[in-house]
Design brief:
With 176 residues, the chain is an alpha/beta fold. The chain is 31% helix and 20% strand. It is built from 5 helices and 8 strands. It has helices spanning 10-17, 80-84, 103-112, 130-137, 153-175, and strands spanning 2-4, 26-28, 47-49, 53-58, 64-69, 90-94, 116-121, 145-148. The chain has a 4-stranded parallel β-sheet, sandwiched between helices. A two-stranded antiparallel sheet has the order 2-3. The chain starts with a strand and ends with a helix. 32% of the residues are buried.
């Protein structure tokens, strides 16, 4: 799962790393979203995800990683429970200009017991350090935090690799 607040780059991340042409449900924002979807800090945004994004990465002939990007607005949060079903882990994308927008995502993951990593999607020079973001989100030290550029395939892939490593570390810790 790739989740986070409105306009943090979830669709962009799925699009940048998927080996197939991603399925997405991007729709043009209309006047109906005025006063509902805050475009503060993202004034150039003209589309929004209304269901989910879907992509795929083949790891080897036996394993495939399916990517689901969830819409960030509160009115779509009811979809998250269905998308979380069977989910092994998640990436929470954060825009450091709007840190509070990802609190709900983190709360839901913690409530569901779903492991996650936090990736600060850099839109230019970050407004806050990673440590400041960790502190603002009240994240424990064991939750991995890293920088990324969701537009860049290598950067997005690095975030997913770190998530898989985190899941593996958690699995080893449970076994010992």
């Amino acid at each position: 799962m790739v989740i986070g607040g409105f306009a943090v780059g979830k669709t962009t991340m799925v699009r940048s790393v998927s080996e197939i042409r991603p399925l997405n449900t991007e729709e043009t924002m209309t006047v109906a979203s005025v006063g509902v979807d805050s475009t503060a800090g993202v004034g150039a945004k003209t589309t929004t995800t209304v269901a989910f994004d879907f992509g795929r990465i083949t790891l080897n002939e036996r394993m495939v990683l399916y990517l689901f990007g969830a819409p960030g607005q509160e009115r779509f949060w009811f979809i998250w429970d269905q998308l979380f079903s069977g989910c092994l882990g998640a990436v929470v994308l954060v825009d450091s200009r709007r840190i509070a927008d990802c609190w709900y995502a983190i709360d839901r993951l913690e409530e569901q017991g779903t492991p996650f990593v936090v990736a600060r999607n850099n839109f230019g020079v970050p407004k806050h350090s990673l440590e400041h973001v960790r502190e603002a989100l009240d994240l424990p030290g064991e939750v991995p935090m890293l920088d990324c550029d969701a537009r860049d395939r290598g950067s997005s892939k690095g975030v997913l690799v770190r998530l898989v490593e985190h899941l593996h570390e958690m699995s080893l810790a449970r076994e010992s």
